[in-house]
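Posting here for the record, re: iron/sulfur cluster.
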Amino acid sequence: MREIYGLIKSQSPPHHFEFSDPFWVLITTVLSHRTKDEVTDASARALFERYRTAEALARADPEEVRQIIRRVGFSRVKAGRVIEVAKTVVGRFGGRVPSTLEELVTIPGVGRKTANVVLADAFGIPAIAVDTHVHRIANRIGWVSTKKPEETEEDLRRIVPEDLWLGFNPTLVEFGKHVCRPVGPKCGECKVSQYCEYYKKKVR
Ligand code: SF4
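Prediction output follows.
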């Protein structure tokens, strides 16, 4: 596991983090669903320029927010969602994003993946966020054999040493964007191929 992860890391460019502030990490992650990172980051930046704080976003006009984030997928739904998140953070948590998984998942629209991203990227708390990249790669390599991301998270929490949890998601996201792509994985140049179940089946 450790050796394979090291090989993955050696092929993954550094991940770009747009924000370190917990509230904006949370908002960026809510916006990111089914949206390219560049578009998500630009939209989150534009939102931040306009509102700056959870209090300001909580009072925002949904149509104005939708206009600002119009390039992200499902912009109408996400506009409502980020305002709702802001209202909850202000109304229930005094304007501060909570730092436990149990509290984070009580915020409307926040699931385990988003909560784990916030824990790891904003608070530096070891957590494994399973998005489509992590789910796909873990199954291809054969670390897990699962249908749902929640099952993948449960299994990975058992098999990934805890000192690797921080940075695990960003490393696999970059690996998934550049090497183990959803369509057309670059198996021929991948340093992990000798350990990878998907590759072994492919060349059999
Ligand atoms: Fe992904 Fe192919 Fe590398 Fe396996 S060998 S991890 S499928 S790129």
